[in-house]
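Dear support,

We are seeing what looks like truncated structure output for some complexes. This example has two components. We would appreciate it if you could run it in full and send us the complete token output so we can diff it against ours.
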Amino acid sequence: MLAYVVRRILATIPVMLVVALVVFSMLMLAPGDPAAVIAGDQATPQDVERIRQALGLDRPFFVQFADFLWRLLHLDLGTSIFTNLPVTHMIAQRIEPTLALMVLTIVLAVSVAVPLGVVAAWKAGSWIDRGVMLFAVFGFSVPVFVVGYLLAYFFALEWELLPVQGYTPLGEGFLPFLENLILPAIALGTVYIALIARITRATMLEVLAQDYIRTAKAKGLGTRPILFLHGLKNAAVPISTVVGIGIALLIGGAVVTESVFAIPGLGRLTVDAILRRDYPVIQGVVLLFSFVYVLINLLIDLLYTLFDPRIRY
Amino acid sequence: MKRRSVLKAAAALTAGAATGLPAPAIAQGAARVLRFVPQANLANFDPIWGTQFVVRNASMLVWDTLYGIDNSFTPRRQMVESEEVSADGLTWTFRLRPGLRWHDGEPVLARDCVASLERWMVRDGMGQMIRALRQELVAVDDRTFRLRLSAPYPKLLFALGKNNTPIAFMMPERIAKTDPFQQITEFVGSGPMRFNRAEWVPGARATWTRFEQYVPRDEPPNWLAGGKRMLFDRIEWIIQPDPATAAAALQAGEVDWWETPLTDLIPVLRRNRNIRIDIADPLGNVGCLRFNHLHPPFNDVRARQAIAWVVNQADFMRAVVGGDDGLWRPMFSYFTPETPNYTEAGSEILKNTRDPAMARRLLQEAGYNGEPVVMLVAQDLAPLSAMGQVANALLRSIGMNVDYVATDWGTVGARRASREPRERGGWNIFFTWFAGADCTNPASYLGLRAHGEGAWFGWPNDPAIERGRDKWFAARNAEEERAACEEISRAAMISQPFTPTGFYRAYQAWRTNVSGIVPGPLPWFWGVSKA
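Here is the complete output from our reference environment:
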């Protein structure tokens, strides 16, 4: 097991290198010039050229890439072209809100979606089942920003129960922290709940049709142990897989959610950096997201062994 | 009291009763904090290195100027106590006000101002002219410095006090010695507010705290001139990437003042009795359809004139500002309406009945034969996207083959610098707007420069425009300035360095408990208070 974990962690190195090369190449090939953005609309072409030189953007592609890799080896993600702040500092400033939003969303989604899916499978064909599936269709179909606006309109503007926007760090109190994050988490979690609920339902339907469930019923076991002890445990592998895959969905959704609720997280940092062609920041954030994604997949793979003792690494 | 506040108060009192601890004061001290939503993200904080308006507006709080223009565009003394000019107009001696201090407590010295001017002169258009004339710029003593020129420069005080970017902000010598093409790393000024660097989260928040040792002038505030009295202990800029969220935050009272509300959201804000709406900047903006003068078809003046003959500014402006006709007006001029230099000299090409037949004939005479016309349109900036769509239909209506390149501003910003023909990645037309404040005179009006290779993107070459510009700089009174502007206008209407697509203004919005907001080319924070 330990050897497997080490192997997997080592395997992330070539993955990250490929990601770094792809991201770097795409940025260099993409149109746009940070020097032009910095110089502003009133700048002369000479000003733009001098800024480009000062930033080192006039150097050949491979020189810039080699420089980037060298710094990366020293865990230095570089300095933002625009803010002149280290990229690691900017990521550190922004990571808490994004992490908090994602964790809250996952907790919320799993704790709502799994019971919903289980109940829907248990009551397959009933109005409860149809209601859950209707919600799933809604969750998949309505964009995150629409859900966000609707929530903000009702809960913040109409009923004045929660703030419209912003973020309060956890260190300043749990209640203000939750107040700011609950609407974004619901908005972001809607599609995630829909996804997990559907998968849970489908998997549970399959599991509940197995012989051992019939045997459990014949033994006289109650509904709860059948559903959650025998049923859900055996359905957990595909569900946890979807939870893992859904992290990518969350990363994409976080960009929109953070904009709608003005949360100073990594999603907004990424969008701002892309619009301004702030290459070091884009590279840093994409590398971080890729690393997190690889790690989460590793974690999910390890979780399989808990759910299914037959799985060995 | 808002429902949330009531609920919070109840929760706090309950918690206090349960724990025996005193309940926290609700919104304690909130009246001394201004929460402001700026027009854009404060991504950098060096007003000489980065010339974006948002940087200038933020810098105004931290760095002071030697002079400042008032709402009549007259430069008034600000950090300067007095000045002397020799009879030949070549030697200027400036004396600083006593008691000026930097935010680190050190006194403001003449050598700081000399270093600041040296850095500014590299990046600013007027500064470069002064630099070309400079024979000597030295500190005479701690409060006095001298500038000796090789020729008189009548616009010197205007240059030192203008509000167009980059502004001649004063910085401590050690900071001002930074290469003008590198960012400064220390944000120490002598202005009325201190920048809280540790709280700066680019893209999210920037904050300032009142500088207790700032000594405002005695005169009442008037734009950049007069006493900059701060009535807040703290100013918070809250960056809002989404206009709908900014509108909701203003309605909910989570922010106090929104610099640039989206026109579409104005009706919603108007319905809220706690919000006031007014014109943000009376000097507004000038829409610009910019030609590339280096390559066909617009290297031929007749092709440019063809476009001018069919541009209907009402179509452009309604696309930009929507149905609110109070926000725009036609502008048969290159200079900002309702300002002293506004002139319609030679403007028949824009003013007369629109004439597509004339446009087609001119295009034919220019040798245009259906070649693609590359039009760069930034989709992420609503006014530019709107202008692009109108122009696309317009050019097609006169038989032009438009290659409509829908992209983002970052790409336009880079591609417009290309001098190559369209086959090799070049361009023929792009859109932008100029701040009306920049178009009140030729000083900082880069779009109206026409000195060929050295000119702004598009590189127009028209000696007649440049001659008029030289006359404006040499003008010694308002009449001479106006005559020079008329000469520029007549020449520009013929050669069309760009075609103005109209003049439009924008709104600003604030909570009714905020008072003292004065419309202007940038948000003035001095004199503003909150009940």
